[in-house]
Amino acid sequence: MKVMWPVRLLLRSQGLKVIIEALFASLKPMAYATLFLLIVCTIFSVTGMAFCRKKFHSWNDMSLDGLLGQGKVECAGNFYTDKDVYFPRRWARPPWGSHFDSLDSSIAVFFKCLTLNWAKYYTYAQDAYLVDVQPVPGINMAVSSLFFHLFLLIGSFSGLNLFASFMCDTFYPLQGTAQLEKVQWMAVKAMLAAHQPKKHRVPLKNMFSTLLREILSSTYWQNISALCLLLNVTFMGSVHSNQDASFDEFLDVQNTVFFGFMCAEAGLHLLSLGPRKNVMNASLIFF
Description:
Elements: H1 6-12, H2 14-25, H3 27-52, E1 58-59, E2 78-80, E3 86-88, E4 91-92, H4 103-113, H5 119-127, H6 141-175, H7 180-194, H8 207-216, H9 219-237, H10 245-273, H11 275-286
Antiparallel strand pairs: 1-4, 2-3
Helix pairs in contact: 2-6, 3-4, 3-6, 5-6, 8-10, 9-10, 10-11
């Protein structure tokens, strides 16, 4: 309790008190920003697992050539290092938080990338070639560059700026320095966006399309769709290192089944709404 006594000094200063109030007032939007970053990291983590799982493993003796298919099978015996030290060969992967073999490690990689500490993982990704094959320097540079730079654009440069923007938006009104003209202009922009002309697309009115719309909009169907999505994400997140071939086959089968369900649902929406109405609804969801 004595350690917390200096907090009383903060409350006696009007400027510091405003900062503390702004910090607590912005906790709710910051929580939404944190959830957004977690979802982004999860999406990129699952994608990274799909492309780079078990591909960061390498042989400590760099004499293997991955282009010739050499890798885990050839990893045996001993070798001399540059300092003439006799050392056993071993097939190993980077430590936890530096590979895409599991969902928790993948998320840890991208949380580190949020702080712009991403160069090491980018190097691993651009050298990844095949499973249980020695990495080849620079063979996957184009895909890894697009992947990591897209995450940095969405996660670091856009996502992290949300925290500062929420803090500033809360701080200035509490401080009493918000400009009246800016507030009025934001209100006018919101009014214009709410009352701009909109095209009204009428869905198909035949009996079959009407029945499909009733089924697809029912709570029962929505719960089934959400459950399938949750199961698919859960199965994709259960990927781990050293899993057997039967589990790999199970993951492939469930991915095929859920992908087929998603395609069937999209086709039903197309039949129930029509092409134009369906495209307009999809654009509203994404934009």
